[in-house]
Amino acid sequence: MKIKKRNIFRIVWFSLVTLFFIWNWTTYQSRNIPETTFTDDGKVTVVKSNEKITFEPINSNSRHEIIFFQGGLTDPKAYAPLCRKIAENGFTCHLIKMNWRMPLWDYKKIESLFDLKNGNYIIGGHSQGAKMASQFVFENPNLMKGLFLLGTSHPRDFDLSNRILPTIKLYGEFDGLASVSEVMENKDKLPKNAFLIAIKGGNHSQFGYLGKLLTDDKAEIDLEAQQRLTLEALNDFFKKIETD
């Protein structure tokens, strides 16, 4: 009887653990993406490859291009609607696909994808993608024309405060993975000319078209509102760099 009870306990325990990991993994998948996100139209052309998805405006005189790093473990397509909107506002946006969905290991791939030394690139991303975008800037001074960070407490392990680089950090009021207190704790490590903008009512997950990630807090605005506020802030930031 004891042996049977142990076996039952083990089966139940392993089943619960398996269900937890399955549920957690599903939250990292993209969802509810607008049907026209990857469709060519009169405004944007979409080019897909194994390494990236490029959203290119058809009529644009912009000198700058955007490099967007996905969050860790997240489906890169979750950021496609935002990248497309950026392109609709005149900026070519490259959404980078990271091997194993891990920017931590794969962020340097952009060195072989782009002519960074002779181009005008603005780099950024969400969560771990934002962390590695700031890491790339730290390792490559004067290479990028701007830095944007979404839903992250980084830079945390290194200091960019001696850099003069157009920088913006957007953070959610109810971000359970990169809390407001953590963002404020590390703000002095940002370039001195950095802008910090709070997304009132926003959380971590809604910077992408994702499920509610584990430990994230509940947002008080919906996904569309957070995406709109994020786009408005980024668009103003990109245009300022373009005109300066």
Largest sheet composition = 8 strands, mixed
Distance between the termini: 77 Å
Could you say which structural class the secondary elements and strand pairing correspond to?
alpha/beta
Q: How many separate domains? A: 1
Strand arrangement within the widest β-sheet reads 1-2-4-3-5-6-7-8
Q: Tell me, what is the CATH class?
A: Alpha Beta
The outline comes out as: globular
Assembly context of the chains: single chain
**What portion of residues is helical?**
25-40%
Q: Which homologous superfamily in CATH is the superfamily?
A: Alpha/Beta hydrolase fold, catalytic domain
Integer-rounded radius of gyration: 19 Å
Helix tally equals 7
Query: Strand-residue fraction?
Result: 15-25%
H and E order: HEEEHEHHEHEEHEH
The count of strands amounts to: 8
CATH topology: Rossmann fold
Q: Which CATH-level-2 architecture?
A: 3-Layer(aba) Sandwich
Write the layout of secondary structure elements.
Layout: H1 2-27, E1 44-48, E2 52-57, E3 65-69, H2 80-88, E4 92-96, H3 103-106, H4 110-113, E5 121-126, H5 128-139, E6 146-150, E7 167-172, H6 180-185, E8 195-199, H7 223-243
Parallel strand pairs: 3-4, 3-5, 5-6, 6-7, 7-8
Antiparallel strand pairs: 1-2, 2-4
